Amino acid sequence: QVQLVESGGGLVQAGGSLRLSCAASGRSFSMYAMGWFRQAPGKEREFVVVVNWSGGYTYYADSVKGRFTISRDNAKNTVYLQMNGLKPEDTAVYYCAAHDRRNGGSWTAPEAYEYWGRGTQVTVSS
User: Strand order in 78-83's β-sheet?
Assistant: First the structure.
């Protein structure tokens, strides 16, 4: 079992920054690739970024590339999402998710992830 709790969301003006954290509990955090997804009202859940178990591989959605940065600290069982240059279209609930690297599936697909946090709201005002 892995439990994930996001924090750091809030209201920010366009062009501002936020840093999201995802604290994990349970065994063997380093076994999991960690992803961030987001979902705006009326839209499908959208892939944002993923980092592999070691932190040596990352992949970003085109919409956030150059603005968002993912990192992880396995010793602290925590993954971070630094969001800079925020835009109103970034407004969404942001979810942290864990994918067992021993399982198959695309890292950009929500259905490939076994564990999810409850989400944290990010609102960017214009």
Answer: 2-7, 18-26, 78-83, 68-73
- Residue 124 CA to residue 126 CA, distance in Å, equals 7
CB pairs under 8 A, 24+ apart, for 103-111?
Answer: 107/33, 107/35, 107/50, 107/59, 108/47, 108/50, 108/59, 108/61, 109/47, 110/37, 110/45, 110/47
Residue position matching structure tokens 């925020």: 86
| First and final C-alpha spacing in the chain | 40
Q: How many angstroms separate the most distant Cα atoms in the chain?
A: 42
Task: Give residue 41's identity as a one-letter amino acid code.
Answer: P
From 46, 25, 26, 52, select the one nearest 94 (Cα to Cα): 46
Q: Whose structure tokens read 């602290």?
A: 76
pLDDT digits (tens, 9 = 90+) for 44-53: 999 999 999 8
pLDDT in tens, 60-86: 999 999 999 999 998 899 999 999 999
Read off the tokens for 89: 């279209």
